[in-house]
Amino acid sequence: MTYSDAVGIVDLLLSVLTISFALYLYFKDPLKRWRFLGYRTTIIMAIFDPATKDVLLVNHEFGGWQLIQSGLVGDDILAQLSRGIPREINVSADHFDLRFVRTLGTVRNNRTEVVKKSTIGYVSLFNSARGKGYIAAYISCNRKDVEEHMTPGFSILEAQFVPTPKVMETIFSSGYFSSHDYKRGMYAQIIDDITNYVETRTRTVERLTRKSFYQHQH
Q1: Total number of domains in the chain
Q2: 151 in Cβ contact with 89 (< 8 Å)
Q3: pLDDT averaged over consecutive 10-residue blocks of the chain (218 residues)?
Q4: Residue 93: which of 148, 50, 163, 146 has the closest Cα?
Q5: What pLDDT score was predicted for residue 204?
Q6: Do 112 and 193 fall within a single domain?
Q7: Is 40 helix (H, G, I), strand (E, B) or coil?
Q8: What's the domain range around 17?
Q9: What's the CATH number where 160 sits?
Q10: In this structure, is the dihedral angle defined by the CA atoms of residues 79, 81, 85 and 91, taken in order, positive or negative?
Q11: Which of 38, 62, 142, 172 could form a disulfide with 126 if both were Cys (CB 3.0 to 4.6 A apart)?
């Protein structure tokens, strides 16, 4: 093997490694991975008051009681939240704080259901959407502040805050999601996440309060 052959092999290996690493970084992002595989992304907005542990639900004209949700085109989740929340309840986004986001999983469409997908800004293996990928955005607010400004938006019959233990009952009593077992699991996960977040936040505040008290005493 000549020196030039060795250099060529090294260059090839570096090129393969670079491409592989780039693909790994690309597909590590669930949003990009879902779109490539033909899944449209939907954001479920879990808006809650950490002090009262109440969760905001909307009574949608075509879907009963549910959390606010919106399709996502692109990668800017904050921009979508800024558009989606005011559209549903007519309250500007500066009344809310995004705490964290988590993926909930994907759901395949029925065989008879063919859904058109947007191809703006990304590449997909499929011409039609194979299903939906769901992510949850956990958004804190002050209930009293939001209620002072809140009015039903487009296709919304009513909006109200509901105590955490009653969220599942309120949503699934309307019957709209009765056949959507995957939605029941997603909503249950969201409620657990909110409960855990509030409890962790409460313990942290109590610990810091005790620490401050002892420091002042000594």
Answers
A1: 2
A2: yes
A3: 62 61 54 78 95 94 88 83 93 94 84 50 62 93 96 92 92 68 86 92 55 43
A4: 146
A5: 61
A6: yes
A7: strand
A8: 1-28
A9: 3.90.79.10
A10: negative
A11: 38
